[in-house]
Write a structure and sequence with these properties.
Alpha-Beta Plaits, ATP binding, transport, binds adenosine-5'-triphosphate, Putative ABC transporter ATP-binding protein YbhF, nodulation, elongated, 13 strands, AAA+_ATPase, 375 residues, 2 domains, six-stranded mixed sheet
Length: 375
């Protein structure tokens, strides 16, 4: 039986956990990535993006949970997974003493005859001299060599950790456009990024990882359509506004004098009308939220207790003494996931099946009432 079956998701993660000595880097990540998409993983510094990518590429074994990539288990078959995919880490490791040409030749031994030709074509397109030593390349040029290596065996899945960092704007643009072309031919690109505006241009699927948990996942268009920015003017700064009913979920609220700004999921037109009729409300304006605004609303510092954290606080410290140390191929094989916490995100694929919908409108500061959202 072939390792890959085309109807199955190319990446699946179930209840992935990664505990380091001092921190739970991943706390029950469920994810499905379908073929032929550009899937962007967004998250703040330290959210767990690289940890998740290292697990998917077989460089790190999870503490718990399981993953399948191209139909293979990266914890048990790391070499096979890495042969199937193209991967660029956030800090590509290239041998500094090799030339650009030697680097390609060295990697080519693992792949088919077309590898070297594709690699050379890419290096030429990036205007990098083949006889230059890696140690004499700029950061951006090294990133281009790493990308050329990752693409040279024409992988059906490309996994990129911060692919555009170090690239100049012109190269970033053409690189990202080439990712859309790949997806159009049925290949899959899974990338992590901080560059939300860039992601917005290329991704068709998006997930937000926040403190080791997926707090939002879905098709970009649907995510954008599902979150609204409400600006409400009131006659008195202390005026209380009634709760929004279900299915609305208030993600965040800012108060500035007599103006409130709310980010709300699943706002219904009737709710806007009801707000306008409330006593003391002088105006209600309704806008679509940008991906950046949605990202901020879902990753507020105070959102931790609402994103399914069983500790109910911002502390991700691990109780475990099980320090997995640096990324390694050795260690325990993944076991069954921990399904004990009913508040764990149960997002499967590009749809989520659970969220809290208390619809509260908060009257002070920035808080969230949404627990976990997706489309
Ligand atoms: N080998 C390790 N040992 C201990 N802690 C680790 C290890 N690797 C990662 N961590 C911790 O796990 C958390 C997630 O780290 P990770 O590198 O996955 O974040 P990230 O989302 O990729 O961040 P960034 O955007 O800054 O690259 C961080 O708190 C980090 O300190």
């Amino acid at each position: 039986m072939p390792a890959e079956a085309n109807h199955l998701p190319i990446i699946e993660a179930e209840k992935l956990q990664m505990k380091f000595r001092r921190i739970d880097a991943l706390r029950g990540v469920n994810l499905q990535v379908n073929r032929g998409s550009v899937f962007a993983l967004l998250g703040e510094n330290g959210a767990g993006k690289s940890t998740l990518i290292r697990i998917l590429t077989g460089f790190q074994k999870p503490s718990d949970g399981s993953a399948r990539v191209c139909g293979l288990d990266p914890a048990r078959q790391p070499d096979q997974v890495r042969r199937q995919i193209g991967y660029v880490s956030d800090a590509p490791s290239l041998y500094p003493w090799m030339t650009v040409a030697e680097t390609g030749g060295f990697a080519a031994s693992l792949y088919d005859a077309a590898f070297l030709e594709r690699y050379q074509r890419s290096i030429n397109a990036y205007e990098i001299r083949a006889d230059q030593k890696i140690k004499h390349l700029s950061k951006g040029q090294r990133a281009k060599v790493a990308l050329s290596l990752a693409l040279a065996h024409d992988p059906s899945l490309l996994i990129l950790d911060e692919p555009t960092s170090g690239l100049d704007p012109k190269v970033r643009k053409s690189f990202l456009e080439s990712m859309i072309d790949r997806a159009a031919t049925g290949q899959t690109v899974f990338l992590s990024s901080h560059q939300i505006s860039e992601v917005e241009r290329v991704a068709d699927q998006v997930a937000i990882l926040h403190r080791g948990k997926i707090v939002l996942v879905g098709a970009l268009d649907e995510i954008r359509d599902s979150v609204s920015r409400l600006v409400i003017d009131v006659d008195d700064p202390l005026r209380a506004i009634a709760r929004l009913p279900a299915p609305a979920t208030v993600l965040s609220e800012d108060t500035a004098g007599r103006q409130r700004q709310l980010f709300v999921r699943q706002l219904q037109p009737a709710m806007i009308n009801a707000l306008r009729e409330q006593e003391g409300v002088t105006e209600v304006r309704h806008h679509s939220a940008t991906l950046e605004e949605i990202f901020v609303a879902y990753t507020l510092p105070s959102s931790e207790s609402n994103s399914g954290d069983s500790n109910g606080g911002s502390d991700r410290r691990s109780d475990s003494d099980d320090d997995q140390g640096p990324p390694s191929d050795s260690g325990n094989v993944a076991g069954p996931g921990n399904a004990a916490d009913p508040r764990n995100t149960s997002d499967t694929g590009n749809s989520t099946v659970r969220e809290r919908n208390d619809g509260s409108v908060l009257t002070r500061g920035k808080e969230r009432t949404g627990e976990v959202g997706a489309l």
